[in-house]
Amino acid sequence: MPETIEKVSIQLKVNGKSHSVSVEPRTLLVELLREHLDLTGTHVGCDTTYCGACTVLMNGAAVKSCTMFAVQADGAEITTVEGLEKDGQLHPIQRAFGDAYGLQCGYCTPGFMLSAMQLLAHNQQPSDHDIRKAIAGNTCRCTGYQNIFKAIQLAAQNMKGAR
Amino acid sequence: MNQPADEKNWVGKALPRKEENRLLRGRGRFSDDVKLRDMLYLRFVRSPYAHARIVSVDISAAEALPGVVCALTGAEVVAQTQPFIEIGPDPFAKIKDYPLAVSKVRYQGEPVAAVVAQSAALADDAAELVQIEYDALDPVIDAEDALLNKSVLHDEAGTNQVWNGVFEYGEVEKAFKEAAHIVSIDRMHFHRFSSTPLENNVVIGCWDPKDERIYYECNNSFPSFAIQFLAAHLQVHIDRIRVETSDIGGSFGIKITSYPQMAICALASKKAGGRPVKWVETRSEHITSSAHGNERTFRDTRIALDKNGVITAITSRHIDDCGAYPRYEPLGCVIWSQVFAGVYRFKNARIDFSQAVTNKCPVGPNRGYSRMQHLWFLERVVDICAHELGIPPDEMRLRNYIRPEEFPYTTPNGCVYDSGNYPKMLQLAKQRIGWDEWKKKQAAARKEGRLVGIGIGTTLDSGTNNFGQSQIVNPGLPYSGNSQGANCKLDIYGEVVVAVGSCPQGQGHETTAAQVVADVLNIHPDLVTVRTGFDTERNVHTGFSGTYASQFAVSGLSAVHGAAQKLKAEMKRLGAFVLQTKENDIEFGTGAQGPELRAKSTSKSINYWGLANLVNANSAALPEELYEVTLNCRYIWRAPFKVPDKQRKYGNLTLTYASQLHIAVVEVERDTFIPRILDYVAVDDCGTVINPPIVEGQVYGATAHGIGAALMENCVYDAVGNMLTSTFSDYTPITAMNMPKVKYDHIETPSPHSYSGAKGMGEGGAAPVHTISAALQDALFAEGVFIDDSFNNADSLFRALVAKEISQVGKLVKVEKR
Ligand code: FES
Ligand code: FES
Question: Would you tell me which residues 133-162 of chain A have a C-beta closer than 8 angstroms to some C-beta of chain B?
Fold first, then answer.
């Protein structure tokens, strides 16, 4: 272990806001978000890239922020759960999770919503199987997934109506 | 006792959850989100051995690392604390359980030292510099082996047997003498698993040496229990410990036993001069060393049946494995007997129950705690007897179920089942799954050589327990009954504010409590602010406050209802004075000025602000006889329990009995032996439903835990005590890819034991574990295989079906026909 760890400067945009920060090379993206930028809506549930509680969008793609170094996000645009609302209005995916009782403790929910964002950006009429595949990397211990399936279907319908 | 009809506007409705606003926006407050000034970070150094003597612990290199503030060892902990209280009697009351291992380690993952540093990353670095030398000892992995005492874990106890007791009721010998059939099952086994909440344990501890106060922000789910352990251990008065919980990312009981880590965070904070110390558990730490569900082995089971297949008696020997330290145990040695008879009518039984320590992770309450093992056992008994006697499993159940007209039903051990209708649930479940259709499809599939089975599981979820049962395991314990507190007030500007002593983890307590208060005061639930989460300083808790054991709908909401009624009575008194009318002529409602009180058939009214103002800010206008009105009402709800008869182990152990009836259709693939669920139905009865989608959500969640446990989730140890499933990637919690679509339905048999008719629910009794075991046995019985383990995957099914190493009916099950 080196005596002093040299920090690296990076720039990134999170929820539309630019940040330049200096981080240790070993700092994970999720640590950057939670500890440096105080965006604690992104959670950590495991240490083997299994649970998806840490899911965020990086340049529109759902990524597990526990499995990326912060330095890998240099120059990227990140969306976290805090960035889903627009002008104080919940995103249709957020509304659908609430309306369909798609959450209980809510710890997994940000990750599920961001995985659903990626799915619905490319697929406006997802089948049951499409939905399951899209959230295969997200674990929920409370809901048994049934109402999450319903929430994503509902979000798809609502977003279609809005388009 | 039942709620008046005019109080039912909101209870029973699908009200959206109040919790959603913050949780959907990423604005929840989970313990790891909390940062305190000058906060330090703690990491544990854990044992790689299951059983070893500690030769030396050297923390000097770790302490020398820049950024490290201090480190702690077991020796230091011993010097400053008392061992944790033991719940059980001698000889296990003598063992010394400290939050860091002292001279020995007893399970892989046991904490041996702790380091505290300026950042979490530095604490990680420092942990690697701690040097520990071990001298390995023989590990004991199996509970039956442990009882042979070849290698003893706790020298002070001198034995590995934590507890033993015989539960005997009725005329067992007579029943066997008169039996038409006797079925014997050599051995069955219920595996270890954990519901692994998605949020790991988190503790922030702060022990200010100047004013001798300890503050915790943490996600412990039964803080009133934890503080009793901590106060005695840390030698501080209990009122000097403040515990605050916020949003909790699931617990399922597993977060009840985090008090050892809470102790270490406090001691570390004290050593660091009172700076707050945060510990965030990693997932591997959680799986290897937080808590597992109880593992249980059932030996020498004998079942007496009459000529119609009605079970008349059961005898069996049960051996529970509690891991390295009892902690919450041996409470599980009696808690299973809440469902001693399951849903069945047999009157005669003798269960010899022992518990042993082994070199594995300590157990703790896990959704369905201690009852699911027994319910699984009973359901296996029923299915094995049915198959052996050639009685269809649905018919077998109908012949043995407690009948609807028998409620309230007293079981052989004195438990009083409040209400239920198991035949109706079975009928509904069969209808919802399309039983007759599936029977036809199953017959056709069998002709093609496919292994398809249909299984039924009937389950009880006993809620609101009588802590008097703890005296059955240790007559010296000072606990009995059950209580819960709530506070309901009109705040200075007339806001309705409710505080409860629960610490919910997604059960929607804020919403259901608001529904109850809204009905009492005849206002909209949006006007009710509910403060959940435990806080010792908010003073609404009782000795049993927390969120565990399927009870909020009964204990929590009864307390809320009581407090709201107290407030309503005070408001009436005050209103009668202001409006110059009789208390009986006061009406509650909402007018142009918000929620208000009206004098009947007049235009006079006063709103909540006016009432609150009179008490809080305009007190000179208040006559002296109304000085006792505070508009701040605390109510303690107490369950109507008696202390059970300790000698006979007899008495009512829980207040309500929700029930579940599940049916699964499962196929074992011929080539891969992978078991796949083809169809699944869950029918629930938790009495009167307070908020239907919340109940439905709890049923789905419990069902997912049970399906995961039955087919995917297993805490596996090798022969020397290495845990082989220590990450999520190995433990494989159930995902959306494995979770079948669940058909949900329910019936309501209102409980006469709660004011609203509701029953505690949420644990679901691990219904899918026995349902899937039943379906697998139905699929495989013709191949000579029966299901004798609660965990079944492709590997074990291959060993049973092809290698024929395990689960062979011919070898392990005997039938004596008279
Ligand atoms: S925390 Fe990132 S996958 Fe679990
Ligand atoms: S809602 Fe609790 S983990 Fe998903």
Answer: 133, 135-136, 138-149
Residue of B6 and B87 predicted with greater confidence:
B87
Domain boundary among A60, A83, A106: A83
CB atoms within 10 A of CB B287: 25
Q: What are the angstrom distances between the C-alpha of B106 and each of B103, B183, B582, B722? A: 10, 39, 69, 12
Asked if A40's CB is within 8 angstroms of B30's CB, the reply is yes
pLDDT of the residue at B2: 41
**pLDDT > 70: what percent of chain B?**
99
**What average pLDDT does this structure show over B142-153?**
98
CB B210 within 8 A of CB B388: no
Which class would CATH give B34-137+195-289? alpha beta
pLDDT average, residue stretch A33-42 = 97
Local confidence band at A162 (pLDDT 50, 70, 90 cut-offs)? low
- Region of residue B560 (phi > 0: left; psi between -120 and 50: alpha; otherwise: beta): alpha
Our answer on whether the CB atom of A81 is closer than 6 Å to any ligand 2 atom is no
Query: pLDDT digit string (tens) for B706-730?
Result: 999 999 999 999 999 999 999 999 9
Task: Reply yes or no on domain B20-28+482-638 having CATH 3.40.50.300.
Answer: no
Residue A3 covered by a domain: no
Q: Which residues contact B400 (CB under 8 A, 6 or more apart)?
A: B309, B310, B311, B344, B345, B346, B382
Whether residue A99 is contained in a domain is answered as yes
Q: What does the pLDDT average to over B496-513?
A: 89
Other CB atoms within 10 Å distance of the CB of residue B467:
20
Task: Give the pLDDT confidence of B740-759 residue by residue, as tens digits.
Answer: 999 999 999 999 998 899 99
B163-194+291-464+644-817 is a CATH 3.30.365.10 domain: yes
Chain segment B547-559, per-residue pLDDT in tens: 777 778 888 899 9
Q: Which candidate, B487, B505, B488, places its Cα nearest to that of B19?
A: B505
According to DSSP, residue B537 is labeled G
Select from B129, B195, B198, B200 the residue whose CB has the most chain A CBs within 10 Å, as the one to mutate to test that interface: B198
Q: What are the domain boundaries of chain B?
A: 20-28+482-638, 34-137+195-289, 163-194+291-464+644-817
Whether residue A150 lies inside any domain: the answer is yes
Q: Find how far residue A97's CA is from the centre of its chain.
A: 14
- Contacts of A20-26 spanning 24+ positions with Cβ under 8 A: A21/A70, A23/A70, A23/A71, A24/B121, A25/A69, A25/A71, A26/A69, A26/B121
In a domain, A66, yes or no: yes
- Structural domain containing residue A77: 8-83
d(CA B365, CA B580): 55
d(CA B158, CA B357): 12
C-alpha A84: how far from chain center = 10
Structure tokens at B420: 């239920």
CB pairs under 8 A between A and B: 182
Task: Using alpha carbons, select from B527, B532, B503, B501 the residue that is nearest to residue B515.
Answer: B527
A-contacting residues in B 504-533 (Cβ below 8 Å): 505-508
A126 touches chain B (CB under 8 A): no
Q: DSSP letter at B739?
A: P
Specify the pTM: 0.96
Q: Are B276 and B206 in contact (CB under 8 A)?
A: yes
pLDDT higher than 80, residue A4: no
- Residue B8, pLDDT score: 62
Residue B162 exposed, middle or buried by CB count within 10 Å (0-12, 13-18, 19+): buried
| Atom 4 of ligand 2, residue of closest alpha carbon | A140
> By percentage, how much of chain B surpasses pLDDT 90?
90
Chain A residues within 8 A of B702 when measuring between CB atoms = 144
Place of tokens 């435990």: B534
Instruction: Note the pLDDT of residue A3.
Output: 54
From the alpha carbon of A55, which atom of ligand 1 is closest?
2
